[in-house]
Write a structure and sequence with these properties.
Elements lengths: L7 E5 L2 H14 L3 E5 L4 H10 L7 E4 L8 H5 L2 E4 L5 H10 L3 E5 L4 H11 L12 H19 L3 E5 L5 H8 L3 E4 L3 H6 L9 E4 L11 H9 L6 E4 L6 H5 L6 E2 L6 H6 L6 E4 L4 H8 L5 E4 L13 H12 L2
Parallel strand pairs: 1-2, 1-4, 2-3, 4-5, 5-6, 6-7, 8-9, 8-11, 9-10, 11-12
């Protein structure tokens, strides 16, 4: 698609990052050229679902395989969807920080804000990173934190009241709330027709929560009228629940978009995950969002305590 000249240039690597970039453009009215990482199936499908509904001045380019490309390097201003990304860390190391807006990549945004506020390394919770990644994360954090204090980095987030974002705002960063007004008003995809929806999680695929415990949780929700929407990386787990009587409904777009247009949903059940903050905003007020605490016995040994603390806080924040 054609570029809009001096527009801010975005780099996104997931469907939720894409949605948040579009929400920023809709909220500010500013032009935005979105570069979406090529070759990611669900990202491609989300682009296809949203492209006919984009706000004025927003374009999407699916041709880039890397954030370190001439369009990003030559841009005067950026929007970034995931500063934990190895590609983004490499770009920050290669070019320094431009006038930058950072949007959420789910609940990991809170740990990012904590790291930047403390000038600690950008290290993704629950992931063991190599020495090179850690070195890039420390350099990227220092550069972004310094630029934020000079007013050159802003944040567009569903978590503006989280301690890290409060600290960044107090230090001079521009922190704005993402209210998902565009998604709620546009409702760009077909609605999910069900009264009760259970949302899948990546915690099992990532080895953080026991598969048997997950099956136990789903058994408590097993009912032919309940629709189960699996996480996009949930493959082996689906075979484990095939006999539970749940209606499985895979969707090709982020769950937030899929549920935004539903006139029938009255209850959504989920374990703590990145969808919680966005669903709290996007779902109609009369829909019950049931975020269930993960019992201690469900956790696999060696889970990053930062990840556990972050997810436990999500469940407690009613």
């Amino acid at each position: 698609m054609a570029s809009s000249g001096d527009a801010r240039v975005a780099w996104v690597e997931s469907p939720l990052q894409l949605l948040n970039a579009i929400e920023w453009a809709a909220a500010t009215g500013e032009p935005l050229d979105i570069m979406a990482r090529a070759g990611l199936v669900q990202l491609d499908r989300t682009v296809a679902a949203l492209v006919g509904h984009l706000p004025a001045g927003v374009t999407i380019d699916l041709s880039a395989g890397s954030a370190v490309n001439p369009r990003m390097r030559g841009a005067h201003s950026w929007l970034l969807g995931d500063v934990y990304s190895g590609q983004v860390k490499a770009m920050l190391a290669a070019t320094g920080v431009r006038d930058t807006v950072i949007v959420d990549d789910g609940s990991a945004a809170t740990s990012m804000a904590d790291a930047l506020a403390a000038r600690a390394a950008l290290s993704r919770p629950g992931v063991a990173e190599g020495l090179g990644h850690r070195a890039l994360g420390l350099a990227g954090s220092a550069r972004l934190a310094a630029a934020a204090r000079r007013g050159r980095v802003g944040f567009f987030t569903a978590y503006p009241d989280a301690p890290g974002f409060v600290a960044l705002a107090a230090a001079g960063a521009d922190v704005r709330r993402n209210a998902y007004a565009w998604t709620r008003a546009t409702r760009p995809v077909d609605a999910v027709y069900a009264e009760h929806v259970v949302v899948g999680t990546a915690l099992i695929a990532d080895g953080h929560v026991s598969r048997d415990a997950y099956r136990e949780w789903l058994t408590g929700h097993a009912d032919p009228s309940t629709v189960y929407i699996p996480h996009r990386r949930e493959d082996a787990e689906l075979a484990l629940i095939a006999d539970l009587g749940l209606t499985v409904l895979p969707v090709d777009v982020p769950i937030e978009i899929a549920l935004a247009g539903s006139p029938t949903v009255r209850r959504v059940s989920t374990l703590p995950s990145s969808v919680v903050a966005t669903l709290r905003v996007i779902l109609d007020p009369e829909v019950e969002l049931d975020v269930e605490v993960i019992p201690s016995r469900w956790w696999e040994p060696g889970v990053d305590p930062r990840l556990r603390a972050m997810l436990e806080a999500l469940a407690e924040d009613r």
